[in-house]
Amino acid sequence: MLPKFDLYMPTDFAEACRMKAEGMKVVAGGTDVYVNMHAGKDHSAQVLDIKQLKELQGQRYVTGQGLDLGALTTHRRIEKWDVIKEHYHALYQGCSQVGSVQIRYRATLGGNIMNGAPSADSIGPMLVHDAQVVVAGPNGERTIPLDKFYTGFKKFDIQPDELLTRIRIPQPPANSGSAYYKYMRRNAMDLALLGVSAYVELSGGTMTTVRIALTTAAPTPMRSYQAEAVLTGQEVSDEVFAKAAEAVVAEGKPRSSWRSSAEFRQRLLHEVTIVVLHEAAARAKKSPKEKASPIPMQLYPSLAGLLPRPKEEE
Amino acid sequence: MQTVEITVTVNGEVYQKTVSSNQTLLRFLRDDLMLTGVKEGCNEGECGACTVLVDGQPISSCLTLAAEMDGKHVLTVEGLSSDTRLHPLQEAFIEAGSVQCGYCTPGMLMSALALLNLYSHPTREQIRKEMEGNICRCTGYTRIADGILLAEEKIDAIRESALRVGKEPPQFTGIDEQFPEKWNSQYEED
Questions:
Q1: Closest-CA residue in chain B for A33?
Q2: For A199-249, how does the pLDDT look when each residue is reduced to its tens digit (9 = 90+)?
Q3: Between residues B90 and B162, which one has the greater pLDDT?
Q4: Of B21, B63, B131, the CB nearest to A7
Q5: What residues contact residue A173 under an 8 Å CB cut-off, 6+ apart?
Q6: Are residue B99 and residue B43 in the same domain, yes or no?
Q7: B47, B106: one domain
Q8: Alpha helices in A58-167 (DSSP H)
Q9: CB distance from B61 to chain A under 8 Å?
Q10: Is B183 a member of any domain?
């Protein structure tokens, strides 16, 4: 049974902002908030359902410009949208692995961001695709790069009277590819034990732009700028990917939880980074239509003896 | 607001009700409408036993408020059959042995219906992916996938026989006035 609360479902944006400023609990899909309430972890006395707000609805793709997603866009919408598979494959991989079908029909991208979980599956792909978020309130709109939006564990660059309204993702060029790998203990209904996303732009065999994002490797989803610097301007090769993986391991700060120890996560970071970079680079070489199809994964290159294993700590 | 007035269509019938703001759709269906086919499992969206279709989409009714259902169409397992007539999916579940203790079955049926509305000829891989949100502790899932594939055959056969006698094939998206005594014999030519 849910705890008792007053429910508000405003249709007017300004009213919603005022209600949020009063300290009401904001709910979109409810797949995090109501779970916490059932578990007795959340006793909010006033709940603000924002699903009626037009400003947060709708999603549009304009060729040449990119995606304009309302914060209420569900994971299922992203999963079943061909544009996403073709141009933003990492985002497809992330969103299609969230919870279950039932959850994905309800859970929203805006909610995935604002819940602030370090394991959020849609965030890494959005980070590597250079997404920007739009927050709006009584004092107008602000557009913020997604990686600047996180200021700490479950903390955001947002005022109490502001709401996250839209997510904008630029159009990736034809010579780009992206990939996301979610390491799970089972193939459904699990949070990411670790996630790595990568985005690669290839010109000839050279990587001109690289972006890497890590999930469950820090208190917030994060970009790995050092690894990106290692890769930019380099040719695609196992050796340079291994160097980047070392940089990722140095930058990631995973902690131990009941899902896994920090040591295991560190080791995974190394392996999964290489796997994901291979997939993103392979996708970058494909024609736009072929980008939508899955690429067979090169699993654990160091176990296969292709690369030296990272040093064991005594 | 402590209470909310809603007008909701459940299994084809329109209800006007006043619900308390913290009542979940699951509790509304079970306690207010006595539709006890909807099961409460984990109550946190993990198990899928409470799956119902809202406007054709499978959702966990334990994580949905009844107050949000104003103007929506809800389909529960009770809406699949009428009197003694079963949906081909239900028939297939019985024939394939997809039911053991039966607690997950209403949720399984609703997810399977959504799956068949999405892919009319699903592969086993698609079945596994689309049914990922429904947990069964008895059957080992193989028989459930068998049941869905059998239902697909039954639906195909009915559609074909309807077309053969020049009738509009039924949609099988929910309760349907054309429900026959037995689906297989509906459009048999004399």
A1: B63
A2: 999 998 899 999 999 999 999 999 999 999 999 999 998 889 989 999 999
A3: B90
A4: B21
A5: A201
A6: no
A7: no
A8: 75-79, 82-87, 89-95, 101-106, 109-115, 123-128, 146-149
A9: no
A10: no
Q: What is the pTM of this model?
A: 0.92
Instruction: Read off the pLDDT of residues B65-100 as tens digits, 9 standing for 90 and up.
Output: 999 999 998 999 998 876 667 888 999 999 999 999
Would you call B21 and A102 a contact, using CB atoms and an 8 Å cutoff?
A: no
Mutate to test the interface with A, among B47, B55, B65 (most CBs of A within 10 A): B65
B187 assigned to some structural domain: no
Cβ atoms A23, B57 nearer than 8 A: no
Say which of A6, A30, A31 has its CB closest to residue B2: A6
* Residue of chain B minimizing CA distance to A10: B1
Task: Give pLDDT < 70 ranges for chain A.
Answer: 298-314
Question: Into how many domains does chain B fold?
Answer: 2
Which of B4, B19, B21, B30 to mutate against chain A (most A CBs within 10 Å)? Answer: B21
ipTM, interface predicted TM-score of the complex: 0.90
pLDDT attached to residue A309:
57
CATH of the structural domain A54-170, one choice from 3.40.50.720, 3.20.20.70, 1.20.1740.10, 3.30.465.10? 3.30.465.10
Query: What is the CATH number assigned to the segment(s) A176-292?
Result: 3.30.390.50
Parent domain of B61: 3-79
User: Phi and psi for A117 in degrees, rounded to 5?
Assistant: -70, 135
> Alpha carbon of A251 to those of A127, B112, B174: distances in Å?
16, 44, 53
